[in-house]
Known about the structure:
- The structure holds 2 protein chains of 2 kinds.
- Chain A is an alpha/beta fold.
- Chain A has 10 helices and 10 strands.
- Chain A has a 6-stranded mixed beta sheet, with helices on both faces. A 4-stranded antiparallel beta sheet of chain A has the order 2-1-4-5, with helices on one face.
- In chain A, about 50% of the residues are buried.
- Classes of the chains: A alpha/beta, B mainly alpha.
Amino acid sequence: xxxxxxxxxxxxxxxxxxxxxxxxxxxxxxxxxxxxxxxxxxxxxxxxxxxxxxxxxxxxxxxxxxxxxxxxxxxxxxxxxxxxxxxxxxxxxxxxxxxxxxxxxxxxxxxxxxxxxxxxxxxxxxxxxxxxxxxxxxxxxxxxxxxxxxxxxxxxxxxxxxxxxxxxxxxxxxxxxxxxxxxxxxxxxxxxxxxxxxxxxxxxxxxxxxxxxxxxxxxxxxxxxxxxxxxxxxxxxxxxxxxx
Amino acid sequence: xxxxxxxxxxxxxxxxxxxxxxxxxxxxxxxxxxxxxxxxxxxxxxxxxxxxxxxxxxxxxxxxxxxxxxxxxxxxxxxxxxxxxxxxxxxxxxxxxxxxxxxxxxxxxxxxxxxxxxxxxxxxxxxxxxxxxxxxxxxxxxxxxxxxxxxxxxxxxxxxxxxxxxxxxxxxxxxxxxxxxxxxxxxxxxxxxxxxxxxxxxxxxxxxxxxxxxxxxxxxxxxxxxxxxxxxxxxxxxxxxxxxxxxxxxxxxxxx
Lengths: 244, 256
C-alpha cells in the first residue's frame, strides 16, 4: 500500500474580503498517484493548490510528506511540492531561462555543480535545453509553459502541482505536454477545466464546487457521470470512449 | 510581440561583444572619466576620444545609424539644462541681442561652458550606448551583481527588463480593445478613457507583482535572489582593456 503523501483535513479558507474559497476539505493523496481537481470557475481549485506549499494558510490541517505545512517546515515542503502557476509570465520572472530554472535549486542551497546539472536535466526533460540562455519574453506560449514546469523539476520535487497546465495551448503543444505529464514519475495534482487531460492522465478525480469537495472517485466513473458533471457546470470529456 | 530591445545588437560577434561585461563596465566608466576630466578647450583631445569611439563602433559592427539615433536622445536634456548658460555666465561679451525691453548677452565663457557640457555628455552617451548595445542585458545584470552592486538595484532592473514588455503588451491589447469599440466620442471622452486604462494597467501590474511574488515564494524565495556566477575573465579581456587604457592614457599625456 503506497503511503499518503498529502493529507488534508477539514481545510477552510476565506479570502481577505470574507469570500469563502474552501470549506471543510478532506483529501488524501497517495504517493505516485495522479489526481485531477476539476470544477467550475471560482470553485477553489487554485486556492487548494496554493495550500500545498504554504502560500495560503487556511484553518485546518495540511500535511505534506508527513510534515505539517507551517512556517518552520516551509523550506523543506517547498522543495517537495513543485507548484506551477497558470500564467507562465508569473512563473518565469528571472532574466533568462537558465536563471529561472536555477532559482529553486539556488534557494535550496544546492552546490553550484549540482545546480548546473539539475538545470540541464530539468530543461532536457521538457526538451527546452536549446532555450537555456533565452529571455522568457522571447519564448512562445507553449515553450513558456514547458520552461515553467522545468523551473520546479530542477528542485527535484516529489509532488507536481499544476494549475491549468493546458490552458491557451495549441493542440500540438497540448499533446506534447500531456505526453510529458503522463511520463513524469511523480505524484501529480492537476487543477484544470480540461477534462480530456484528466481522463488521459489522472487515475482519480475530485470535484470542487463553491469551495466544497462534492465528489471524488476513479476518473472513468466520475467523468462518465453526465448528471454529476452537469450539476457542477461541467460536461462529459469529448474523448470519452462510447462504451464507458 | 515585437518590441525595441535595448540590447538588440548584443548577439553580434565582435571583440567588443566578447569582452567580459565587468571589465567592459570598468573600462567604459573609466573612458567617461577621461572625457569628463578633459579641459573644455582641448578640442583636439575631444576629437581623438571621438575617433577612439568611432573605431570601437566600427569594431563592434553595431550599425552607425543605431548609435547615432540613440545618441540624439541626450540632446534635449543637455539643451534643457545648458541652453541658458551662455546668456547667464558673466565674462567677455560675444554678442548682444535686444528683443524690445529684453536684452540678452552671450559671453565667451558661457559658450565655453555650454560646449563643455555638450561635447562631454555626447561622448559619454555614445560610450554608454556602445557598452549597453554590445552587452546582453542579462550579462550586464550579472556583472553588476558580481561587482557588489546592492541586490535591490539589480533585482529592480531585472524585473523591469522582464516585465516592461509584458506591461507594454497589456497596454497595447487594451488599446486595441478600446479602438475596436470606439465610434466617435469627444476628445475629452477619449482622454477620460485613457485615464481609466492607465488605472486598470496599474492594478494589473500590481496584481502581476503579487502573483510573481507568490511564484517566487513557492520556489523557496526567502528575501534575496541568489544567482550563479558564470562569468569568466580571460586573457583577451585583460589585453583588450589594457589596449583601451593605453590609448586613453596616451591621448591624455600627448594631447592634454
